[in-house]
Amino acid sequence: MPAVEVVRTGALTTVQDGGRRGHAALGVGGSGAADAASYALANRLLANHEGAAALEVTMGGLVLRARGAVTAAVTGATCPVTVDGRGAAPDTVLHLADGARLRLGTPTSGLRSYVAVRGGVDVPPVLDSRSTDTLAGLGPPPPEPGTVLTVGPPPRAMPTADWVPSRPLPAGELSLRIVPGPRDDWFRDDALAVLLASAYEVTDRSDRIGARLSGPPLARRSGGELPSEGMVPGSLQVPPEGRPVLFLADHPVTGGYPVIAVVTADDVARAAQARPGTAVRFHR
Amino acid sequence: MRVLRCADSGVLVEVADLGEVMALHAALAEDPPEGVGDIVPAARTVLLRIAPGGDPDAVAAAVGRLRPRPGGRAAAGELEVPVQYDGRDLAGIAELTGLTEREVVRAHTGAEWAVAFCGFAPGFGYLVGDDPRLHVPRRGEARTRVPAGAVALAGEFSGIYPRASPGGWQLLGSTELVTWDLDRDPPALLRPGVRVRFTEEPPAPRRGPGGGRRAHREGGTRTDAGS
Question: In what residue span(s) does the Carboxyltransferase domain sit (chain A) (predicted)?
Fold first, then answer.
């Protein structure tokens, strides 16, 4: 079986797939690729099964060495890609000869890159998924330098396009669509207006669990405690100090702070590309 | 019953109390509406997560037609949990409840408990009992590390930490039962609807040369024996 050897990982590289479904009642979250759209594109380019596991690379810096011939694709954050030092294009089908080195530089925009291999990354699934849940500590351990990841058997279908253009990531401000609720009634009447009128900034205390935002606080109507309830990705959960946290793939299954609004499913993938310092605006 | 929306990702159903949550979850688990990827029962709500391609409007409409099933979870099974009541907060719990330490233990072992829902960590079950004397607030400050197997109280709930983690619950004691094991199917012993009875175990003898605590009843090994 061909494989890829991890030479360098950058800040954080994990194996991710479409996520874990059907185990939430046991307290197990969804996890999966934070930017589901870029992950899906990487698999589509290679004609992979849509749930094939890929590598999610945070802020570039990954170096892989092919063991045997490997077909790969890089999507997501806009970052320089090289194969054996020569420039290679993202969002295309890349053919790596035995021993070839695939290198991802630092992104110029966006945060998370997806490196898919034709046949998928073959690590043992945990509760039906190959995703690493960084909050729950479930799934495969994050690869380290020296980790060898086996590539699964190639699918019967062949890639049909050499290049699939993707929507460029916004270089400046990120605009995300929200729907108020489920707990907007826990906030003062002006809180939703403040959320919609203000620029928030993604702070460096952001990870796969959530993007913590700075900006004007959102004031609650009164004290009291919300009994813990289930959360979805995209939830804007507001702790007592008032700054929202935008929940991403590894968010807790249940939470005890009220959610003022939820980012729509399509826009959660774009939110996952917001690096610290990115300005975010919300609209209805 | 109030149906709240989480954009296009979820439908949150709010009911009056935990009994209604358990009845609604029983009905949903038996007959999940099309387009639902996951069901998350909690203290006063049941969240229906929409699967990719699922229609949240259709799910919300289907929920409106559901008939909750009171007592519909009896088939989830029963579990006996042997506990050594030597927790660091036992004296504090006695003070908060106005009971003696022995009375706290008797109340905890005498009550009928059932898993209402899971959360916080994989395999962490929120157990509700029928003895309101045991309701105590969370600790003012969370501990950075609570050992695996710690048996604790907070609010109306009792719980067992499935692995070492930070935690703010009041520690009553510890069990050697492994409540979460990925090599088991299902990995969680505490699943919504499982009925639980706590029994008192004598304190473990100190580990001596060649000694050690005896194996627990599930046949596995305790992965984290900190205290």
Answer: 25-284
pTM value is 0.89
Q: How far apart are the first and last CA of chain B?
A: 43
ipTM of the predicted assembly exceeds 0.95: no
What letter would DSSP give residue A26? Answer: G
Provide the residue count of chain B. 227
Q: SS3 breakdown of chain A: % helix, strand, coil, rounded to 5?
A: 10, 35, 55
- The topology (CATH level 3) of B2-64 is Gyrase A; domain 2 (3.30.1360)
- For chain B, the residues whose C-beta falls within 8 A of a C-beta of chain A are 4-10, 12, 25, 29, 37-47, 49-51, 117-125, 163, 182, 186-188, 191-192
Domain ranges of chain B: 2-64, 78-221
- Put simply, whether A196 touches B (Cβ < 8 Å) is no
What CATH number does domain B78-221 carry, 2.60.40.3210, 2.120.10.30, 2.40.100.10, 2.40.50.180? Answer: 2.40.100.10
Residue in chain A lying closest to B4 (CA) = A182
Whether residues A28 and B122 touch (CB distance < 8 A) is answered with yes
Chain A, nearest residue to B28 by Cα: A25
Q: Which two tokens stand for residue B141?
A: 């400050």
Domains belonging to chain A, first-starting first, are 3-150 (no CATH), 174-283 (2.40.100.10)
- CA dihedral (A186, A192, A193, A194) positive or negative: positive
A262 closest CB neighbour out of B7, B124, B187: B7
Q: Mean pLDDT of successive 10-residue segments in chain A (284 residues)?
A: 96 97 92 97 96 97 98 96 97 97 96 98 96 95 97 93 77 93 96 97 95 96 86 95 96 93 96 96 97
Which phi-psi region, left, alpha or beta, contains residue A157 (left: φ > 0; alpha: ψ -120 to 50)?
Answer: beta
> Is residue B82 exposed (0-12), middle (13-18) or buried (19+ Cβ within 10 Å)?
middle
**Cross-chain residue pair B12–A230, CB shorter than 8 Å:** yes
Q: Do B39 and A24 touch (CB under 8 A)?
A: yes
